[in-house]
């Protein structure tokens, strides 16, 4: 079984790498546009495929299915509400970003506010990606692969290992080894390829991920339906645990229904509209129309997300809830138990592609933030384009090594997905507030951007980490996501007040600075309306 699994794993991995090399081997990667934005040549299928797979890494496949294992269908909010955020991206944010001709979000903040705001935003992004996002990608990827490929059985590591005088448990040894293997592979991809290389690899793996994800859902539904097909499996879920198949989250769950309108909505809006790791794909669009089509196609594909990101977790609960399986182990266990060996290897290869995609996206975005935000402005302002890209590649290696050290230390979290969303709020909310106010309130001065970023990070960090005895959030019994909504409203209010007390001398105007065609896609509004209607229909259908 292990032999067939490994053969199919390496076969698909080699095929994806060969296709990517043949398509992108002549790409220009010396200039910053070539390395970070794919030469601004990305078309809508590439944008959509890359956006989807950048999002669909193991923190989603393993983490969101783990959340569904705990809470049921209500966690589909992370997928379905994302569609509304993508509509906002296509109609409001993307036209402004492309018009500004930016490569990073902090560049936009420099145009709107000043260099100080840009620098603070850069440091926030860099810290969050290096210390939080990239380590979580590596950790969740290692956890998923360990279960899918049965790495204990494959490696023969069943007993504690003595290393440098330390006695390490088998799972710890496998976790560290898998994290470093993934990290080294991802660093090589990111080090030698630009954004278009990553985007093409994303698209190839994205096709495999969708096929594999639907396969898992089908096999899992068939299993709980006693081999009588997916419909019988769904009926079994409805009869056995009907309370886990509602879109309305309860107060004691990770996504209570009311939080959809506060923290969940804001986290989705930041993620899909201003998160550098994600929107860098759209900033490389060959035209506004191609970018809008790519973003809205991503929204349509996200509507299918609950089928392979939520339902398998619900099924895993029915199969394993009395077997001591932890939430973040459930998805990998399901894959290993239900897929035939050749398909397990194929899906593991696809998962590796998903891990590498998110890992590379974060590294590429981190290097862009470092080189354009810090290297060009502070370290070596007189440096050439070539030296800037070279510095970015060195920074990628340093960041990757740091993430590989931090990732295994995350072991022991009850739910890695819940931990990720909680920690994301520390920087998601302040940056999103500053971007929104900057684009909508044209008289707000530069100092408001600095105040918004610093105050937001401090307020949310205090709310999360102050001891319970002196923490007002704990006293009031506020859900963490409602707390994020309150902080967002407070930051917007503070910045608008600063604008009233000390406004800019003149209205700020977004100047056009782009080489691409800015003609909107003629069907963008109708496609957006259709997506909104489907989102509402899904929630209503599963509410009763």
Tell me what the structure shows.
74% of the residues lie in helices and 1% in strands. It is mainly alpha-helical and 544 residues long. It has one domain: Sodium/glucose cotransporter (Up-down Bundle), CATH 1.20.1730. α4 (58-71) packs across α20 and α7 (115-148) runs parallel beside α21 (446-465). The longest helix has 39 residues, at 341-379. It is globular and about 70 Å long. 53% of the residues are buried.
Regions with pLDDT < 50 over 5+ consecutive residues?
27-39
CATH level 4 superfamily: Sodium/glucose cotransporter
User: What is the radius of gyration?
Assistant: 23 Å
Percent in helix: over 70%
Name the beta content range: under 5%
Shape: globular
Give the number of domains.
1
Number of strands: 2
* End-to-end gap: 44 Å
Structural topology:
Layout: H1 2-24, H2 32-37, H3 44-55, H4 58-71, H5 77-100, H6 105-112, H7 115-148, H8 151-155, E1 161-163, E2 166-168, H9 170-192, H10 195-224, H11 230-240, H12 263-273, H13 276-283, H14 288-302, H15 305-309, H16 311-320, H17 327-338, H18 341-379, H19 385-406, H20 416-440, H21 446-465, H22 472-476, H23 480-501, H24 524-543
Antiparallel strand pairs: 1-2
Helix pairs in contact: 1-10, 1-18, 3-10, 3-13, 3-14, 3-18, 4-7, 4-16, 4-17, 4-20, 5-12, 5-14, 5-24, 6-7, 7-9, 7-17, 7-18, 7-19, 7-20, 7-21, 9-18, 9-19, 10-11, 10-16, 10-18, 12-20, 13-18, 14-24, 16-17, 18-19, 20-21, 20-23, 21-23
